[in-house]
Amino acid sequence: MSGIGGSNYWEDLRKQARQLENELDLKLVSFSKLCTSYSSSRDGRRGDTSDTTPLLNNSTQDRMFDTMSVEIEQLLAKLTVVNDKMAEYTNTPGTASLNAALMHTLQRHRDILQDYTHEFHKTKGNFLAIREREDLLGSVRKDIESYKSGSGVNNRRTEMFLKEHEHLRNSDRLMDDTISIAMATKENMTSQRGFLKSIQSRVNTLANRFPTINNLIQRVNLRKRRDSLILGTVIGVCTILLLLYAFH
């Protein structure tokens, strides 16, 4: 496969990859929203005394979770197949002159696939952990309510147990919110780091193509280091003079 036909085949693969990546991005956003709203919706329904409505709502969310999980896994599998085909194309005879550019494009699509796979498994794991925890807390609360209704005793020990249970649930929710904020901050910093790396790569490319720019960048770096040394020396001298004056 070479020439115009090979080029069209490669572009078709890239088009398929971009389309699958866009679909995955939308699916993962919806999937994340479903997992985030799951716990809050359970909290809102927990105060309801009706038994049927929560069960119906929980069942609906569980079915949505299972359906979206299958759809995302299928999209990830399709994207993996497209990446494998792109990798095979890079090894086709006649593409040696374009191999560097092809490998760069392939690596970018592989990185996107890896990021989406990691995000999917992380969100799915968080959802399953929340569901297991909420089921456990709901079971405990149901047992407490059954005990209260069966015995007809509203003693101090039961009230203390309920208050402690509520306190633990609130602490658990606060911890989840803190972890979510930390993860969002980490993802934002990772995105910024990738953006800065991209800028640095472009600057290095321009510097390699234009020696004058490269020399200018080196001079700027040397001047920055020189200014840093001068500033450090001045700060050191001032610090020593302040110490001598203080202990004089």
TrEMBL record:
Q: Where is this region: Disordered?
A: 37-59
Q: Which residues cross the membrane?
A: 229-247
Primary location group: Golgi
Q: Name one GO biological process term.
A: protein transport
Q: Name one Pfam family in it.
A: V-SNARE_C
GO CC terms = cis-Golgi network; Golgi medial cisterna; Golgi membrane; SNARE complex
Report the membrane topology from the UniProt record: Single-pass type IV membrane protein
Which InterPro entries does its entry note?
Answer: Golgi_SNAP_su1
Function statement? Involved in transport from the ER to the Golgi apparatus as well as in intra-Golgi transport. It belongs to a super-family of proteins called t-SNAREs or soluble NSF (N-ethylmaleimide-sensitive factor) attachment protein receptor. May play a protective role against hydrogen peroxide induced cytotoxicity under glutathione depleted conditions in neuronal cells by regulating the intracellular ROS levels via inhibition of p38 MAPK (MAPK11, MAPK12, MAPK13 and MAPK14). Participates in docking and fusion stage of ER to cis-Golgi transport.
Q: What is this protein called?
A: Golgi SNAP receptor complex member 1
Source species, please?
Zoarces viviparus (Viviparous eelpout)
